[in-house]
Amino acid sequence: MTATETDTSSPVGQRATLLEVTDLSTSFRTERGVVHAVDGVTFTLDRGRTLGVVGESGSGKTVLSRSIMGLLSGKNVVREGSVKYEGTEIIGYSAKQMSNVWGAEMSMVFQDPMTSLNPVMKIGKQITESLRRHLGVDKDEAEQTAIALLKSVGIPAPEQRLGEYPHQLSGGMRQRVTIAIALACGPKILFADEPTTALDVTVQAQILDLLDDQQRERHMAMILVTHDLGVVRTRADEIIVMYGGKVVEQAPTSTLFASMKMPYTEALLRSIPRLDMPSHTRLDAIPGRPPNLIAPPTGCNFASRCRYVQPRCLEERPPLVAAADPGHFYRCFFPVGTPEGEAALQANLASGTAVAAPAPRSSTTTEES
Amino acid sequence: MAGSGTAHLRDPESTLLRAEHLVVEFPVGNTGLKVHAVSDVSLDILPGETLGLVGESGSGKSTTGRALMQMPSPRSGSVTLDGRELTGLKSNDLRELRPQMQMIFQDPISSLNPRRRVGEIVGEPLKIWKRGTAAEQDALIDATLEAVGIDPAAARGRRPHEFSGGQCQRICVARALMLDPKIIICDEPVSALDVSVQAQILNLLQDMKERYGLTMLFIAHDLAVVKNVSDRVAVMYLGKLCEVGSPDDIYARPAHPYTRALIDSIPSADSETNSHDGQRLTGEIPSPVAPPSGCRFRTRCPSAQELCSQVEPVMREVSANQYVACHFPLHEGTSDSEGASPA
Hints:
heterodimer, A: alpha/beta, Rossmann fold, 2 domains, globular, disordered N terminus, B: alpha/beta, eight-stranded mixed sheet, four-stranded antiparallel sheet, 11 helices, disordered C terminus
């Protein structure tokens, strides 16, 4: 019943599609208007693969993963499009139907290990809960499995930990427990939503290694949601870059870094201070702020912050188009590294009139207020 | 590391801020136990210099920053600003010196009063200290807001919630600049911000430093950020300093095993593989209630020996202007030999 067993039974060498998301949109009705948090996202995920979803806060990356898992409920949530899990449409599932999917088929590791555990329930109970619910095992067997799980996620003295409460553990240990809970029933897809953002850099490396190992062992697919391009670069097979609720670039990891086409991806990468830069290197900040998702701009969402922006970008919304490399898509009229893009950038630099080209005296004054 | 010593301090005459043997401890309830948050830390900052203080959470870096500000005063040790001793000052005397030291906090939104207007927030220091006439104050508020990239005409009448996190941090920077401080202590000023906004604020701090000749203590956990802004970097672990030196030296040739491990843990957006797999730190930072004997890093250190548990290493110079508190530094003198020979 684990993912590994299921997979060995499928034809060898065939890339089996596990999750198929087509044109998924999610919006929230609020007092101020409808927030289009996720807008027309399409991708497929194969067994055992890792998809990285990258974006700033407010780009819709978290809503995307929660929307796929059906964790958003309430009458103010509007979900459209299709999510097929192993060929079955799950978008219309009731919460009751979904409860057979959660934990057993898909599970999630959240950003904040402090608040995603129940503070008044012992750790053992929190792990065995889903085991008993989904696998119907008895108490002793569930406990043995829980001990094995805690051991596999690197928690020392697991027998003793079962009887402890979350506050008795450090942040890194708590995140290991949430991973153990997420892995308990052998899910085929693990959603990791900023799993290391709340952790220290040394612990972050340990947790990412742990996720890697578990994924390989269980032949599990993973959707790794993060704002850190560094994290996905070394961990993901494919990357989706989101901006303003839309996919703006999508490519296999090596293709993305070798020939990125979307000015936003480039800007994001250029704005991060890197260790190999000499001290006091001036950073290429992205001026301005993300778009308003209640009343998105007419043209490209990124136009007001883009170095390549042209009049066309303000009037027309660029579609997602395919690049030369297989599996590489982007959403731009003047892509990076093409003659059109280069011409647009040069024209903007020359005239200095671009909507958001870095101001000549200081880039810090260009943030709109 | 994690050792004591003052070998890395410079001529007291030349430094603006100098802290020697700082100790900060907090009681744990009524148990009689103590959290050893900062244990014998010494550091100094030259005028116009930015000192980056880096470490994991729980390493005591924020507590050190606050001890320098006397919020609260350290249990023992000395802090001098421009030659004047701050510890033990009466609260009125200390208050007179407060305008010279300002702080910028991690969360820009919660460090601004939500019910007040931006003009009032930024102008309040001037009102409290009765600097200039109302017209002069007005002009200074406008000029400072302008300098941090906020349009004063549009912003002064608005409240903090109408601004994004990055803009709120700009307002915090403006507020910190109002009294023309000698030193600004920035406690994780960009860690609550998005990557794209983080670069804007880092550039702003750099501009302000040039424009106003600021001296800064920059506390952060992100090594790349610290490297970008600092003239000198101090690495902290569990209440002690490990290594002090220029950012380019420390990052190119770390001498302390902890510094090396920190650098190796960073996922890089530039390299395709994780090349440092063997160098991962295991475990987590020990409890500061009962820190390990000798070198505090020894429980996680790949090169720990018997000596490390018995004798606390003392800060010493391993190469020009690079100081390390370790018995077995990764390199000594000018030679680049990896590993180390027992001292």
